[in-house]
From TrEMBL:
A Pfam family per the record: cNMP_binding
Gene3D superfamilies, A to Z: Jelly Rolls (2.60.120.10)
Upper taxonomic lineage: Bacteria, Bacillati, Actinomycetota, Actinomycetes, Kitasatosporales
Domain of life: Bacteria
Protein name: Cyclic nucleotide-binding domain-containing protein
Source organism of the structure: Streptomyces fagopyri
Alphabetized SUPFAM superfamilies for the sequence: cAMP-binding domain-like
InterPro entries assigned: cNMP-bd_dom, cNMP-bd_dom_sf, Env_Response_Regulators, RmlC-like_jellyroll
Domain Cyclic nucleotide-binding: 9-78
This protein's GO CC annotations: cytosol
GO molecular function: DNA-binding transcription factor activity
Length: 154
């Protein structure tokens, strides 16, 4: 639940809140090629990658799923659990063997409800992750479809 300290990366969840969440974390492993979740599926859990790589992908008619982003060490996999209707917006696949911490979304939402300071910290953390991913997706789309690539974000 850490993140790089650079301004372009999402900030880390504060240590006190990270420690509380880690008390309910479960260590899991996924073999290469395993699907963590499918687009449209019930978002009932999320993960923090310990080792390996997870690709986020999107269904494209008559094609293989398009990879949106690759997630690695200490990155959040799954944010849809926090927002109703709690359905995954993308799919996720382990592209290498993955070890991760898994969190039960219902339990985390209950913790956030019971402790507003924790709830605010988690919402800001997930919001930062979302904002970062939207900026990254914008840059990738510009690289793919703009006449001269994205260049710098102006």
């Amino acid at each position: 639940m850490n993140a790089s300290p650079t301004s372009s990366m999402p900030r880390a969840l504060p240590a006190e809140h990270r420690q509380r969440l880690m008390r309910i974390a479960r260590e899991v492993s996924f073999p290469q090629g395993a699907r963590l979740f499918e687009e449209g599926g019930q978002a009932d859990r999320f993960w923090i990658v310990r080792t390996g790589t997870v690709d986020l992908d999107m269904r494209v008619p008559d094609r293989r799923p398009a990879v949106i982003e690759s997630l690695r060490h200490n990155e959040l996999v799954g944010w849809s659990w926090l927002f109703a209707p709690h359905a995954y917006h993308l799919g996720a696949e382990a592209t290498t063997p993955v070890r991760a911490y898994e969190f039960d979304a219902t339990a985390v939402r209950a913790m956030c409800h019971d402790d507003p300071a924790l709830g605010l910290a988690v919402a800001e953390w997930v919001g930062d992750v979302l904002a970062h991913r939207l900026r990254s997706a914008r840059t990738r789309l510009l690289d793919l479809y703009a006449p001269h690539g994205s260049g710098s974000l102006r």
